[in-house]
Amino acid sequence: MKLRPDNISSISKWKSFVKEKTSEKFKDKLKETLQDPSQYSSNNLRDDALSQVLGPDNSHLRAIGKGVTISKLAILSQKDSIIAKLTQEHDEIKKENAEMKQEQDEMKKALSDMRSLVEELQKRQACTMFYSLLCICYNI
């Protein structure tokens, strides 16, 4: 009984466990799962291939670590999905911001071009008015 884990309290439970896991039924189930694991692939941790072979866990999750329960994992996965959603929204806002900055730069250039045009028109108008005054003064 040296191989018995600490979490199995009695020898009878250990013998029952060993008997079940060495039975032909268990071995057949294991072979079936190993031949076609896609049949048991699932996002649901209670129905994955490992749970199909070894049986359901009582409260903890196998192969994830000590102290991890389904509810804790659900909370972590929700947190991950929220972070992913916020990251996506952040990227979209950055893209929109870049587009708005480009539009702003285009508008600044257009405004600068309009100012240059207005200044040119004012210079021409001033020259025309000056020429008109000269014509009036000298009766040309």
Number of DSSP strand runs: 0
Strand composition percent? under 5%
Q: What is the SS-derived class?
A: mainly alpha
- The CA-CA distance between the termini, in Å, is 127 Å
Mean pLDDT comes to: 76
* Structure annotation, total helices: 4
Order of helices and strands: HHHH
Largest sheet: none
Helix share, percent: over 70%
What is Rg? 40 Å
* Parts with pLDDT < 50 across at least 5 consecutive residues: none
Shape: rod-shaped
Describe this entry's structure for a reader.
Keywords: Coiled coil. 70% of the residues lie in helices and 0% in strands. It is mainly α and 140 residues long. The chain has a domain of 47 residues. It is rod-shaped and about 130 Å long. The N and C termini lie far apart (127 Å). The model has no long low-confidence stretch (mean pLDDT 76).
Notable characteristics:
0% strand; mainly alpha; 140 residues
Quick rundown:
The protein has 140 residues and is mostly helical. 70% of the residues lie in helices and 0% in strands. The mean pLDDT is 76.
